[in-house]
Amino acid sequence: MFLDEFQHLYISLPWVLLAIAVFVFLFFFTVPYGRHTGRHLGPSINNKLAWLVMEAPAPLVFALCFLVGNPQLVTVQIILLAMWESHYVDRTFIYPFAVRISNKSFPLAIVLTGLLFNLINAYLNGSYIVNHHQSYSILWLKDGRFLSGVTLFVIGFVINRHSDYVLRGIRRSSDVEYAIPQNGLYRWVSCPNYFGEILLWLGWALAAWSLPAAAFSLWTIANLAPRAYSHHKWYLQSFVDYPKQRHALLPGIW
């Protein structure tokens, strides 16, 4: 069921090249969901259902790798499992029902693409960690890469969740779906939620220290950086009083 070192390498390298291509493409094509809904991409389904279907493979497939893989899990593997699931259980089973998602439909083509991505990504990362327990000995707990990775993951997690909380507060306190957020890192960037998620998965790449983990962090940047740029442009076009000093993703930079 699990891939060996060379099979991970052969799959992950093209996976990285595809991420780079997607990164460039998404600066020219804004995926039409959420505030960018409008362009017709075939059949659509309910937003909450779409989010659940699209994200569910990430926590389920990753956990399945641990259930059917090597039963002799070491401490580092358990910590990595907890890190992954802490994000994806919330993102899949809590977030869609906690946030006031509009009644806009979600293109089925995007749902299927997201589902396929999460299947592949969860399997590559989960199978690598389970199958390479020798790489995650007790010594790895004291390694600077692991410690800095976990720290970066926690910082990104807090930024991401707090930014989502700010957006939920706007939607709870008014009848409008979108307004200018003012709290937290929104004072400096338009998409601190994406900034936090990028930090989170860069931390994951350091802590897991594997090619699949590095590829995933690159995919995160490839998807979220162009979308942050699209969000920033949308804010500037939609609100005449939008703060001009804000940047799209990186405070004071871009």
Describe this entry's structure for a reader:
65% of the residues lie in helices and 2% in strands. The protein has 254 residues and is mainly alpha-helical. It has one domain (5-238). A two-stranded antiparallel sheet has the order 1-2. Helix 2 runs parallel beside helix 5 (108-131), helix 6 packs antiparallel against helix 7 (192-208) and helix 7 packs antiparallel against helix 8. It is globular, with a radius of gyration of 19 Å.
Order of helices and strands: HEHHHEHHHH
Oligomer class: single chain
* Count of individual beta strands: 2
Major sheet description: 2 strands, antiparallel
Which helices and strands, and how do they pair?
Layout lengths: L4 H21 L18 E2 L1 H9 L1 H12 L6 H24 L7 E2 H24 L12 H30 L18 H17 L2 H28 L16
Helix pairs in contact: 1-8, 2-4, 2-5, 3-4, 3-5, 6-7, 7-8
